[in-house]
Amino acid sequence: MLQNNNSNNNNSNRIVYKKQTLSCVESDVVSQLYQGILKVLSTWNALQMALQNKWGGNDTLTKSEDFVFEILTWFRQSKGSFHVEDLENLLHERMLLSFNTDIEDGSIEEIAEQLLVMHEGCLHRAHV
Fold it and tell me: Where does the source fall among the domains of life (predicted)?
């Protein structure tokens, strides 16, 4: 299960989010983004089932950690505007390839939107 163990850290409409470069923002924002990704993914039932049942094999936990960093890297390296469809594709591909799980319940779209909203919130807090 993905959990935030760091206790010290305080379909019809498609969404396009404006890109703000994270590489220029303090490492505190990257840390907040990482924690936010963990929190969002920890609420995703499909991923939690895959982790609990080790659908990714013996290295399921490692794959879940790689998944978090892949999403973080996507946010940090994406060029231009963020398109929710691109993040949905990343989530779908990673679930399929890493956890042998084909998600068709609409949760990929929900999680992608939650991740993008969380990302915008992290950037907004950094610029306030």
Answer: Eukaryota
